[in-house]
Amino acid sequence: MHVVNNKIGVIVDSFRVGVREGLQRAKKVGAEGVQIYAVSGEMDPANLSEAQRKELKEYIASLGLEISALVGDLGGYGFQDKSVNVGKIEKSKRILDLAVELGTPVVTTHIGIVPEDTNSEIYQTMHDACEELASYATSMNAFFAIETGPEPSARLKQFLDGLGSKGVSVNFDPANMVMVTGDDPAQGVYNLKDYIVHTHAKDGLRLREVPAHYIYESLGYEAPANENNTFVPGEGEYFREVPLGEGGVNWTQYLNALKDIGYTGYLTIEREVGEDPEADISKAVQFLKQYRNV
């Protein structure tokens, strides 16, 4: 059973109680690191002075925690829409600056579904944005880490191979693969082995096979409307996020694959649903600890 020694993190926002309280709860459930959303509100880089950044870093350290990554997901169509990319790229860079100041080299993000057609305008738009982000991240010895899920791992690898540096890499989320593309997470790890810099520990079930744009917004695609004639991406019974160990992720195979490729970074628990996130996260920490070499 005992396979890995990776540190265990938790997304502070998953507790749904604000940053300071979330940090305390992360400590309480036994996490060693935390990931924090840094897109809006109190963690928006524009709202944090130099003194506040220093104080926050010291506070996190005083709890005995590290920051595994920041979340810099700006929503919408990711980087598919050329008309808004200048602003999004600029904001992404400021989030990366904040991450480095707080002591982590990783900002996770969604870039939008990578199209199959490498000659399409959307593919080129995403490529150009990611090339600029990759170059900036490399200059900072840091990474923007794309979350897996919207497209098969082989297509994501092809996209990353075309960027010319590893400044844009991968935040591996096994549940998104299981729930959306039906990809095998262990095989995905081997496909993306050169790029994985952070992971999310999440589990889920795929209930119906549907195109990715039913779940993730994609420029130029509309998914069918629901009964109110409005569509919310991901809404409906396409997939279900479940507690770790209750879904389609084969954790032994997946964690062994991470070990095989030499991944030594964080397994960061993400819990986006459920009535009692603290209980679910606490169980998830214990679930992952059972795989440790003891």
TrEMBL record:
Keywords: Isomerase. Gene3D superfamilies: Divalent-metal-dependent TIM barrel enzymes. It holds the Pfam family AP_endonuc_2. GO terms for molecular function: isomerase activity. It comes from the Bacteria. The keyword Isomerase applies. Residues 23-290 form the Xylose isomerase-like TIM barrel domain. The keyword Nucleotide-binding does not apply. InterPro entries: IolE/XylAMocC-like, Xyl_isomerase-like_sf, Xyl_isomerase-like_TIM-brl. This is Sugar phosphate isomerase/epimerase. It comes from Paenibacillus dokdonensis.
